[in-house]
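Protein in question quoted in full.
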Amino acid sequence: MLRISRTLPATALALVLVLAAGAAVAQSKGGGKIVCWKDKSGKVVGCGDRIPPEYQDAATREIDTKSGMTRKTTGTVEEEARLKAEAEALKKQKEEEKKKTAEQRRRDMALLNTYVSEGEIDQRRDRELQEVDRVLTQFHGLYKSSTARHSDAVARLAAAEKAGKPSDALKDEVARAETEKMKIERGIATREKEKEAIRAQYAETKRRYLELRSGGAQSAAVPAPAPAKK
């Protein structure tokens, strides 16, 4: 086995490699290569026709003995694992992007097939808003009644306390009325947010629809009219 283990400047290393290459050819029939291995800092610490057991996990450089050209380089086990993980992550990212593009194309075509004009988008938005407004009207009616009940219970409790006859039943009634009023308030706030979300959703739908119709989007194109028959 040919082995040259040392730490040399680059110029000296080149000379050693030339000599070692000739020796490697003589000792390794038809091998035609010499391998150099590195320590953890990346410094070449030896060359030969095979890698010593203690450097099996080290970074290497394989050189053609005839041309002096590098045939192959490898990193350390850690580097190879890192590069493999990075390659797999990049592949996964590209696959996700491909899926997103396909999904966007599907949505775009569905959008174009659903509406024939931006006016239809407005009409559908208004119908949904009207439905939420209908529910809101009911909530406001409930809130008005709840507020009246709460005010009445608070007034009766205040009068009882002023008369020196506080009642646990009245206190419970005030608490229930307060809880009911707060619950209705949350319901009203939820429906108002729902209206905001509907407006935002259809604003984006209309924006995308107009973009597709104008040809400004790339993920889905407006189907071109069929050529006229001659």
Q: What stands out?
A: Confidence is low (pLDDT under 50) at residues 23-30, 219-230. The chain has two domains: 3-75, 115-214.
